[in-house]
Amino acid sequence: MSLSSQWDEALFVLIKHKGEKMAMGDRFYVTTPIYYPSNRLHIGHAYTTTVADSLARWHKFLGKDVFFLTGSDEHGQKIQRTAEEKGITPKEYVDEIVASFKELWQALNVQYDDFIRTTDERHHKAVQEVFRRIYENGDIYKSKYEGLYCVPCETFWVESKLDQGNCPDCGRPVELVEEESYFFRMGKYADRLLQHIEKHPEFIQPETRRKEMVNFIKGGLDDLCVTRTTFDWGVPVPIDEKHVVYVWFDALTNYLTGAGFPDDTKSLAKWWPADVHLVGKEIMRFHTIIWPIILMALGEELPKTVFGHGWLLFDSDKMSKSKGNVVDPHALIAELGEDPIRYFLLREISFGQDGNFSKKALVERTNSDLANDLGNLLHRTLSMLGKYHGGVVPAPGAEEAIDGELKALAEETRERTVDLMDNLKINDALAQIWRLVGRANKYVDECAPWALAKETATQERLDTVMYNLFEVQRITALLVKSFIPRTGERIWAQLGIDQALPDTGFGDTAWGGLRPGTQTQKGEPIFPRIEWVEDEAEAANDSVEPQKKQPEPVQPPTNETEETVGVVGIEEFAKLELVIAQVVQAEPVKKADKLLKLQVDVGDEVRQIVAGIAQHYAPQDLVGRRILVVKNLKPVKLRGELSQGMLLAATSNDGTLELVSVSDAIAPGSRVK
Ligand code: MSP
Q1: In which domain, by residue range, is 647 found?
Q2: What pairing do the DSSP bridges indicate for beta strands 305-309 and 276-280?
Q3: Looking at 459, 484, 509, which one is the last position of a domain?
Q4: 484 shares its domain with 625
Q5: Is residue 610 helix, strand or coil?
Q6: Which of 30, 48, 350 to mutate to test the pocket of ligand 1 (most atoms within 8 A of CB)?
Q7: Residues 329-380: pLDDT tens digits?
Q8: pTM of the entire structure?
Q9: How many Å is the maximal CA-CA distance in the chain?
Q10: Helix, coil or strand: residue 588
Q11: CA-CA distance, 223 to 188, in Å (whole number)?
């Protein structure tokens, strides 16, 4: 290539890219894999779909025209065999399971724009058209296939890639198949694909998977067998009806069918190429090698990004029906509601990496982030507003430095969240939003509205503090609603804002949108704490966290004298956060007759403290009492129960024990110094 033509090409790419950006910036097309209806879906499948739903809602919120496609991958030998075993037709079999998919998505509050079934007529038409076009341009040819096939994975394998004779993906035995087949000239496109990957670092994400795929392609691409004849549950090959199209060739095409291929050219022009295909890491090869090569052979553009996320593990093992460790999302949603599950999946697992699922972790996340941080902020601020202002949001007065800080963090949060979501850093985006929630809780402690309410001189200050707290929560409701939509709605309803919570409207997250005079509607706490009772099996696995042995500290040289030994300096004492807490709930701890488990309001949250006072107090006598606790004591587990803090009691020589208490005049959270 001459120097000038190189420049021409560079310029062309630049113009094309700019043109694309301009045309595509205001729309967003996201897909999930289409799921096999070979079994009911489990929490691992719910993971991808929750991410896709949140992304779709988020981009809609940013003001884009969004298309979110999901569906079911209904053909193939595996489905045909399963139906035969049950004595029903494949269609009868898949109809029933696909209905359960749709029920699950509804229960999880997933709002897809289209659900594609590969048995849809529109899809058959699209697959046949893709096949015909590639055949006509000479990239599909007829030959004979002799080789190995994994039916559960619907994958062809060469002997050298097997793992001790078994499928390297699922570990199950492969079958020898020998049949007349059509082949797709994949090898021909390997270099073009490598160039594309190099030029578009965003095409395969995350980075580690990009490297894996590049190595795979560099290892050489064989032509791919794209038809089967030994069963008939599939899309008939248009030029030779005794063949059906290979199930992966058929399934991948769904992304084009959904966009309108082949007949709805207007829709296709609007939606293709897709912005993000979300897929699990084990099906990256299909999406980043076979699919782009099909598109190249067709002359269609490649999707902008294929993101390969990690697996949800259960006790560090992949969930699978055959291992009997699947977690049924239907039951979890029925028990806890969909938002704790959505939040856990999005927040707990670093997007792109594997993550562990356990019910215990789900309950802990819900209690800490949703009940304590988010829910308690709303409930306690609404209580204060009810008390001080009849529940009406006041107009803010003069701003102090601490208010400016809160405002700046809210502003930073909206900007950072956009940036993080653009880069598919979903768990980080949520962490950023919770930083704001945490700051607001701290702002309550620092500004102490209960103290401001007591003096006439500080009424204006109280107004400012209350306005700011409700404004942060208005912004938070808007920011969280893409991830936990029902929670966004519930916060909004209690804030009492006249207009409905908008689906679009990122602009509304700018500071100052809350109208003074808004009459709030305090309701029940949006996330009551979940009581977690470990069953025996779980208790055996993870009762008390193994305490790491601390290395012996190296003592700094001191100038201690006899008089100073045992004396504590004021700085050391100040390290202890002693606060007043109100007992909200108290109950015995199973199989521990000395322990009581208390839920105590420490001002900014409700915490659990386990204390050895069962022989001195009946649980019902403690509720409502205001006691003294050490708030910043390292949490420990006692008999499998988390204890976050320590309450203080005095014991006399005869063994009488009494909790140190104060009257109701001192609010929970007040510091003891
Ligand atoms: N039908 C194909 C996809 C065709 S897309 C053109 C398929 N279906 S599947 O039902 O087996 O899996 C669908 C998706 O669920 C995959 O992305 C897979 O990674 C994901 N998951 C299945 N188990 C999972 C976990 N335990 N954790 C996370 N994702 C999991 O493959």
Answers
A1: 570-672
A2: parallel
A3: 509
A4: no
A5: strand
A6: 48
A7: 999 999 999 999 999 999 999 999 999 999 999 999 999 999 999 999 999 9
A8: 0.77
A9: 99
A10: strand
A11: 9
